[in-house]
Amino acid sequence: MSKLYISQNGTIEEDGAGMLEIDFANKYIGGGVLGRGAVQEEIKFLICPELVITRLFTECLDDNEALIVIGC
């Protein structure tokens, strides 16, 4: 089994190279990023605008579904 490393220092945007980021938020990918949303998921989409493209081809996620985005 792989070792797990958890750090509370720095930010994932500046110090998170090679780390996995998980967002548990809205069943609609991006939440309210194109509206008035301003919480974790929407902020992530504004920091990484390449994520917005996922809204074009991702339907509403069911409770047993996940979207994995690599390289953003």
UniProtKB/TrEMBL annotation:
List, alphabetically, the Pfam families matched. PARG_cat_C
Question: What UniProt keywords are attached to this protein's entry?
Answer: Glycosidase, Hydrolase
Q: What is its EC number?
A: 3.2.1.143
A single GO BP: nucleotide-sugar metabolic process
Annotated GO molecular function terms are: poly(ADP-ribose) glycohydrolase activity
Which InterPro entries does the UniProt entry name for this protein?
A: PARG_cat_C, Poly_GlycHdrlase
Q: Does the keyword Hydrolase apply?
A: yes
One GO term describing the cellular component? nucleus
| Active-site residues, Swiss-Prot/TrEMBL | D23, E41, E42
The residues covered by the PARG catalytic Macro domain are 1-71
Kindly provide the name given to this protein in its UniProt entry: Poly(Adp-ribose) glycohydrolase-like protein
